[in-house]
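Journal club side-thread
Mid-discussion, someone asked how the predicted structure for our own chain would compare to the paper's figures. Pasting it here so we can look after the session.
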Amino acid sequence: LELDELEPTEYRTYHALCILGEMLDALITLFISTDWSISQQITSIAKFAFILGSTFIENSAAFMKAHLYGDLQCFVRNSVNIVAHTKELDPQHLIFLCLIGTDILEILFGCVRMIGGHSPNVAPDEFCHHAASATRLHHIFEQYPEWEHKPC
């Protein structure tokens, strides 16, 4: 691709796609490079977070919904905190960010959100109803784990 031959709008599109590619590469490579050191993993997730942040600041809702942006930045923050905490407890412990799981409370809140139709705004009484339903689902799936369809 010859950049000199691109029109200004084509060049802006090319530049935007390059930035998006760098950001997604930093995230995806984190999950598929099993031979990376923890330093390389943290560098990659930090690169993802910084590109994500600068792109969101520049383009706001035209880039992605604020809720998704917040969730992604929380993922980065939690990942770095888990690494720091684990290394503080046992500096020799091997950590792979791709294996960091989630806790049961986060799964429950994900289920609550799903039951509510992924609506970010919910009244307190609706939240109580959704939480009760999510808890019942959790208990059912504990008794019959084959009924639950988890992502691969």
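Post-session note: DSSP finds five helices and no strands in the chain.
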